[in-house]
C-alpha cells in the first residue's frame, strides 16, 4: 500500500496536468460524491492518493472519457459536430475571448490595448502572462539568420513566393536549436520571443531586389520589434509609423481557435515542441482562408492605381463573385472592429504612401454592396500606406500571430490533455457498386459520394 502511494506521488510529480481534484471531477461530470466513489470502485476512473489525509486525485483521461459518454447519451454529438464549424466553444482557455468589439486578451480588449499605445512586446508579455520576473529576449538567433539567408539557394525558392514554407523552415530550424525538449514555460517563452524576433529580421527577403547590406544594417538597429520591421522592410522608421505598426501587431496577436491555432494545440497535445507546433500552424496558413485570402486581397487592392480603376475593379469583382476578398468575417456580422480601427489609423497616418488614396473609394464601393472589411483589408491597407513591399501584410500577420500560437501551445502542454476527437462514421458505398455516383442518406441529408475506380 505504501509503495502504491509512492508510485502515485511520483506520477503526479511528473504529470500534474493529468489529474483532477475531487471538486473539479464532480463539477465536470455533474455527479454526486457517492457516484464518483462508485465509478472508482468499478475501475472506471483511476485515482491516486494526495498527501496523507485521505485525499485523492482522479485521472483526467478517465474523467473526460466518462464525460464524453454522458454527453453522447444526452445527444450532445450533433452539438459537438456543429461546434467544429464556427459553433460553440469546444476547448477551455484563459487566453482570448471573441466579442462583438473584437478579441479580448486575458480579459482586456485588444482594441483598448491598441488605443492606449501599448507596444507589441508589452502585449505579448500580457498574453503569455510572464509577469515581471521574466525578461523576454527580442534578439534574433545569428545561426538561424544565416540559415534564412542561405535558404533561397538551398531550397531553390524565393521567400516572397513561398513565404509559408520559408517561415515554417525558420521555426523548425530555430526550434531544433533552442526549444527541443524544453519543458519549463518560462524558458519556452524566452526562446519563443527570440524566434519571433528572428522571423522578423528575415523579412528583408520580401524586398525586390533583396538588399543584403540594408538587411544587415537593419538587424543592427536598436528599438522595438515594430521599428525593426519597418527598417528591414524598407519603411519609414518614424514614431507615428512605429505606433501604427504596433497597433496592427497587437490586433493580430490572437483570435481564439482559428484553424492554425487549433492545429498548434493538437500538435502540442501530442508532445511536439514549440518550434514544431508553430511550424505546423504556419503550414496550415496555405489554405483559402489565410495565405490565399491575403494574396487575393492584396492583388485586388494593389491593382487599383486610380479612383476610377478602383471603382471599376471592385464593381467587376463583385459582379463576378458576389463577394470581395478580405470582407465579411463570419464572426463579425456587423463588421470586423480590428479592420475598422486599422482603416482609421491609415486615414490619420501622416506621410502615407499616395498609392493608398484610391483605395478609400474602393471601400465605399464595397460598402454599397454590403461588404464589410475584415482584418486582411485593414492590415493590407496599412502596409500599402507605410510603403512596404508586397506580401508584407501576410508576413506581419504570421509574425504577430506566432505570439498567440505560442500562448496556446504552452497552455495546451501545461494542461496535459490530449486532443483526440472522435469521427462520426458514415456508411460507405458497396465496393461492388457500378454507379458513377452513389447518394447515401446521412442524418436526413443526402451525401454524394463519388466513386473512385
UniProtKB/TrEMBL annotation:
The protein depicted here goes by the name citrate synthase (unknown stereospecificity)
Keyword Signal assigned to the entry: answer is no
Q: Which Pfam families did the record assign?
A: Citrate_synt (PF00285)
- One GO cellular component term noted in the UniProt record for this chain: cytosol
Gene Ontology BP term (one): carbohydrate metabolic process
| UniProt KW keywords | Transferase
| Keyword check for Transferase | yes
Q: In which pathway does it act?
A: Carbohydrate metabolism; tricarboxylic acid cycle; isocitrate from oxaloacetate: step 1/2
Query: What family name appears in the similarity comment?
Result: Belongs to the citrate synthase family.
Q: Which InterPro entries match?
A: Citrate_synth-like_lrg_a-sub, Citrate_synth-like_sm_a-sub, Citrate_synthase, Citrate_synthase_sf, DNA-bd_dom_put_sf
Q: Which GO terms describe its molecular function?
A: citrate synthase activity
Which lineage do the record's taxonomy fields give for this organism?
A: Bacteria, Pseudomonadati, Pseudomonadota, Betaproteobacteria, Burkholderiales
Which segments cross the bilayer?
A: none
